[in-house]
Write a structure and sequence with these properties.
Elements (H helix, E strand, L loop, with lengths): L12 E7 L3 E8 L8 E2 L4 E5 L3 E7 L2 E7 L5 E3 L4 E6 L5 E8 L2
Antiparallel strand pairs: 1-2, 2-9, 3-8, 4-7, 4-9, 5-6, 5-8
Length: 101
């Protein structure tokens, strides 16, 4: 069972910006307390934070916190399964670039 309780938690809002045979680019906006919901990454991806703050990542292995800095990207392989939660008292925004080919 995930460590966070989601009753009444708002969902993060994804906005697809680009989708073609090579990449999927999505802007994610998290209200305070917002979360993505459990999902699995089918492709390797890069995250470009537009906000500086701390996110919580719930996975099968438990919870971890990530301190993200606006403009400092990071990459992850395909297969990651988690829920991303904004525990900041402000909106958090990042762009996710999935590499499909």
């Amino acid at each position: 069972m995930p460590p966070h309780v989601f009753a009444g938690r708002p969902k993060a809002t994804p906005t697809r910006q680009v989708e073609n045979d090579r990449v999927i680019v999505t802007e994610w906006r998290f209200p305070p307390g917002g979360h993505t919901g459990w999902h699995r990454h089918e492709w390797p991806y890069v995250v470009v934070p537009l906000t500086t703050g701390r996110l919580t990542l719930d996975s099968a292995d438990g919870s971890a916190h990530g301190d993200l800095v606006a403009g400092q990207s990071y990459a992850r392989p395909a297969g990651i399964e988690h829920d991303v939660i904004n525990d900041n008292p402000f909106e958090f925004v990042f762009v996710e670039i999935e590499i499909t080919n």
